[in-house]
User: Fold Thioredoxin domain-containing protein from Pseudodesulfovibrio profundus.
Amino acid sequence: MIGGVSLEQNNLVEVLEPQRFDVELQGTSLLLLAFLKRNERFRSQTDVLTRACNGFGYPLECFVYDFDYLDTAMERFKIKGTPTFLLFSEGQEVNRLIGETDSESLEEFVRSSLEEDVATRL
Assistant:
């Protein structure tokens, strides 16, 4: 339970602790990681993440970074504010979305970021 939201019942979005990050990153071809503070926007942005992940489907795996380690993570990933969403493909960050969003915009962010990533690799 995080901020009144039970992510344990949601198999699409998991809480990611720092010690699991590198393991998940290497084992996942496509990873969306949300950095959310426990505030009045937490529940709505968690719902947005859940709907976007459900809408996008496999192979996207979605996580919320464990807020007990959020300050350290924000330093590590050079995040200036929350909410921030980082998209990783094949172990590399390909894009980030900063600020509140809705599920449709988050899905479009993932799709367009992947298209750009493929274009730059060609």
